[in-house]
Design a protein that fits this description.
flat, 3 domains, about 375 residues, alpha/beta, 6-stranded mixed beta sheet, DNA polymerase, domain 1, Ubiquitin-like (UB roll)
Length: about 375
Amino acid sequence: MGLKCGIVGLPNVGKSTLFNCLTKAQVSAENYPFCTIEPNVGIVPVPDPRLDQIAAIVKPLRVLQATVEFVDIAGLVKGAATGEGLGNQFLSHIRETDAIIQVVRCFEDENVIHVSGRVSPLDDIEVINTELALADLETVDRAISRIQKASKSGDKSAAIELALLQRVKAQLDMGKPARALRLTKEEQSILKHLHLLTLKPTLYVANVAENGFINNPYLDEVKKIAASEQAEIVVICAAIEAEIASLEDDEKKLFLDELNLTEPGLDRLIHAGYQLLNLETYFTAGEKEVRAWTIPSYTTAPQAAGVIHTDFEKGFIRAEVIAYDDFIHYQGEQGAKEAGKWRLEGKDYIVQDGDIMHFRFNV
């Protein structure tokens, strides 16, 4: 599975700059033949130094990274939920994403006019959250109308769902996201079929000036909001990221060293997206190809095999597994086997982040 993040934000907050930085690092679509790329979609490689370490031992013909799909979602203005601007298109695009990245302006610049005339992260976030909440409110109201009849007839599960929907409605009526309710997994499962926008995991990107990483009241505002909503936050300077994205690898390292940074903000953004959705990576390693694959945490071996091809899951027999640290320490499969670190796992095995795997299957 891939990770699909929708980038939203009001005009002039740095959303397009961020998206352009991401798509400069875009992977070649020819390695992913089932992807249809539109102008507003960027498929970006996930930085993972473990992949390079494995490839250095195996020396394959090619190396393929895991990918994240970023969608630049246009059309978000006040009134989007009622169809203003590109409202309907915006809402349909955002429903298809796994997570929402909300870019928030946390810098002053008289050359970049703010859409409402002044910089206020609180107001910006409120506009976006209100539009998403209004769209969800319409969905929830329809669901309540449908389920009230069943609830009155004594259907216990309908009564439970109705009570939950009314809780969500009260939250949305206040313009607050449903995710701030801290719902149980069972409650989330009940609501899953509604595809509520404000239940999607959300990551705030605070876009600051070059000197805005500390002593920035706008940034403090966003941090406070994120904490109250159970949302993640990544702080970046889109202007710096644009400069980094234009450099060659060796120049990039020098530039980062000068700024006392260990990695670009975009890498931190991608890793934060992984954490947000509880994703992990396993690897396949052969002479032809070393490749990273994305899976949710607690994925079983057959499910992980199915990410490569559905036939692998249907005909799963066993998985050959070597932990990443053992693979590196013993310099590959042969060394790991000799050290007793190669093992066979069955259908109940929970894949661990970094596992190097080979699947045995029969179709």
